[in-house]
Design a protein that fits this description.
Layout (H helix, E strand, L loop, with lengths): L1 E2 L16 E2 L1 E3 L12 E3 L1 H10 L20
Parallel strand pairs: 3-4
Antiparallel strand pairs: 1-2
């Protein structure tokens, strides 16, 4: 989860403005828009979760490809 609308980003959370950016499965088979989250088809999400190694403290970086080297 990427913290959003919570300390230390804001002193007091704004009600109904969300609290994080999550990686989750599409809610409908054809995909759907999110309000800032990253959503994947079931098989892709399972693949990512199986690939990630928690011991390496993985991070998801949302960035233009040309800027990825910064992370």
């Amino acid at each position: 989860m990427i913290t959003y609308n919570m300390p230390p980003n804001v002193p007091t959370p704004i009600p109904n403005a969300g609290s994080g950016i999550f990686l989750h499965e599409f809610r409908v088979s054809a995909g759907n828009a999110t309000a800032g989250c990253v959503s994947l088809a079931h098989d892709h999400l399972v693949g990512v979760l199986n690939w990630l190694d928690p011991a390496l403290s993985p991070r998801i970086v949302l960035s233009p490809y040309a800027q990825l080297e910064r992370y």
